[in-house]
Amino acid sequence: MLLGYGGDGSTGNGNHPSSRSLKDVLLLALDTATPAVTVALHDGTRVLAESRQVDARRHGELLLPAVDRVLAEAGHKLDAVSDIVVGVGPGPYTGLRVGLVTAATFGSVLGVPVHGLCTLDGIAHASGLTEPFVVATDARRKEVYWARYADARTRLTDPAVDRPADLADQVAGVPAVGAGAVLYDTVFTGVRREAPEHQSAGALADLAALKLAAGEELLPPQPLYLRRPDAQVPANYKVVTPR
């Protein structure tokens, strides 16, 4: 692994994937799909700077100052960034949108590709586990977003959203990481508490660098919701039109 930490789809600019030299790459990674507002700058070999603040209600308020802070710490200007990496979820609607819209805006302004990665994959990569395990994050509504992994780099199943009780037979005793596993540890009885609970943009950037160097496909920067947003128009809502 590039950092010592521990999808599939298309690249953000639609190019066919190919192995890529990361000599002059500067990746700006961000993720707001979990309660962690996390940003990192990665030079293709290592993380230069990283910020992570856990606050589920202040994604929009915290993200841009975190970007400024990371760039300043690394001694780079925004226009030096060559690629944007963003966690696409799964995650709650509002928080997830903050990161995706910000990533798209940076990509458009800078004229650089925007690459998506599954948020669960970033948490898995940070775990460094070499055995089969599951990642679970808190999906609210007494549910978790989760997926199975063969190791820290290899996801075996598509992300899903379920009630923990419905997963008991599948995950009991299986090594598990993530805030969802910690929250429902009576179901995820193999929870690894020493592993990171929340997303790390440094791990996300490291995983993206590995995939880009190997010519692997990344996801388009589109949200992975898995369910409808909490706020919905009432079924009996009447539209009032002016006369």
UniProtKB/TrEMBL annotation:
The UniProt entry, under CDD domains, shows: ASKHA_NBD_TsaB
What region holds the Gcp-like domain?
A: 56-169
Q: Which domain of life is it from?
A: Bacteria
One GO cellular component term noted in the UniProt record for this chain: cytosol
SUPFAM superfamilies according to UniProt? Actin-like ATPase domain (SSF53067)
Report the record's Gene Ontology biological process terms: tRNA threonylcarbamoyladenosine modification
Know the name of this protein? Putative tRNA threonylcarbamoyladenosine biosynthesis protein
What is the source species? Streptomyces lydicamycinicus
